[in-house]
Amino acid sequence: MPASKRGSNIYSRMGIPTVINAQSWVTALGGSLMRPEVFAAMEEAGKYFIEIEKLHDAAGEVVAKAVGTEAGFVCAGAAAGNLLMAAAVMTGTDEAKIERLPDTTGMKNEILIFKAQRNYYDKTFEVSGATLIDVGMPGGAHQYHLEAAFTEKTSAVAYIVAPMLKQPLSLFEVVEIAHSRGVPVIVDASAQVPPIQNLTRYTAEGADMVTFSGGKGICGPQNSGLLAGKRDLIKAARMNYQYPGPSRAGIARAAKVSKETLVGLMTAIELLLKTDHEAVWGAWRAKADHIAGRLKGMPGTRVVVEEDENRQGPQPVIYFEKSWKGLSPADVRKRLREGDPPIWVGGGGYGDEINMAMVNVQDGEERVIADRLLELLRSNKS
Ligand SMILES: *Cc1c(COP(=O)(O)O)cnc(C)c1O
Q1: How far is the CA of 105 from the centre of ligand 1 (A)?
Q2: Which atom of ligand 1 lies nearest, measured to the CA of 215?
Q3: Which residue has the least CA distance to atom 2 on ligand 1?
Q4: What is the pLDDT of residues 65-119, one digit of tens each?
Q5: What is the arrangement of strands in the sheet containing 209-213, beginning at the earlier edge strand?
Q6: pLDDT, tens digit, for every residue of 291-322?
Q7: Does ligand 1 lie within 6 Å of residue 218's CB atom?
Q8: Topology alike, domains 3-30+277-377 and 36-274
Q9: Span 3-30+277-377: which CATH code?
Q10: What percentage of the chain has pLDDT greater than the value 90?
C-alpha cells in the first residue's frame, strides 16, 4: 500500500514520514523488512533467560550450515564482521594479543586491500587496530601489485564485493596468491545476497572468512550480520567479541548482539533457505516491468530493465540522452523525495541514470512510483 495511504503508524505519530524505498537495502532508509515469523521468534526469545554462549553456539551452527563452512558466528552487522575478521587474523586465539588490541604491538597488523575496493565502510577493518595497505591503482591492479605488497607484517588480504565496486583480480587469483604465502583472505560481501547462490560462493572459492549483513537482503534484524569460515579463525573472532577469561571484554564488545537479534537472524536464515527465490525474483521483475512499461517511449530517454551484478535484483533504469529536454536527473530525484509519499530511488552507478531497486518496493508501490515519474518527466524544467 502506498505510504500516504497507510494511515497512522508509529513513525507518523512521531512526525517522521514513511517513504517508498526504491533505493535498496540502505541503512539510511531502514535496511529491509523482517518477516512476521522473525518478529514472532524475537518476541518469544525475549521472554526467557539463557546462557548466551549456548545460544551463540546454536546460531553459529545455523550460519555454518547455511554458508557451508566449518564454523559460523552471528555478529552485529557486516561492519562488525569486518572488525571481527581483522581482529581474528591478527590475534588468532592468543589471549595476550586479544587483550592487547587495539594496540597491535608484536602482531602482524597489515591488511592488504585493493585501492579499487576502498569504500565507505573500510574503516571497520581499522577499528581493530589493523593498518590497511593499498594495493594497485584506483582503476585496477595486476597480479604483481598484489605479489609485491606482502611483508612479514601481512595478516590478511581483504576483498570487498559490492555493486559497482571493481574486482581488479578475481577472488580465485587473490586466494591463490595469498594462500601460497600462508595468508588468509577475508571477504566483505555485505549486500551480495540475494542471489542466494552468493551465500556459499566466496568461501567455496577459497576465502577463509566472509561476512554478510543480516539486515539487507537476508531480511533479519537491521543490526545483525553473519560471519562464516575456518574453524580456528571463527574461534579467534569470537574470542575477540567476548573473551570469556578473567580479563577485560574483547575489542568487539562495542558491537554486542542481543539474544533477540541472535534468534531473529537464525530465523531469517532458516526462512531464506526455504524461500522460493525464483518466485521472489519474478515478483521483482514484474514490478520493474510495470514501471519500465509505463515510462517507455519518452523522447530523450532510454528505459530498460537491468539485472546485472551491479544491480540488486531486476531494476527499471532511466538513461537520459543528450536530446533530453526535461528536468535533470538530480531534480527528478529531489522532487521524488519531496513529494507525498517521499520516494527514494537509486543514484545511478554507471552515470547519472535513475535506477530503482524493487527489493523493498511493497506491493502496489510500483504504480505510485510510475505515476509520479510520468508526471515529473512530462513536466517542464521550471
Ligand atoms: C552495508 C555495507 C557494510 C555494512 O554492513 P552493516 O551490516 O550495515 O554493518 C559493509 N560493507 C559493505 C560493502 C556494505 O555495503
Answers
A1: 28
A2: 7
A3: 190
A4: 999 999 999 999 999 999 999 999 999 999 999 999 999 999 999 999 999 999 9
A5: 71-75, 225-229, 209-213, 185-188, 154-160, 110-114, 131-135
A6: 999 999 999 999 999 999 899 999 999 999 99
A7: no
A8: no
A9: 3.90.1150.110
A10: 94
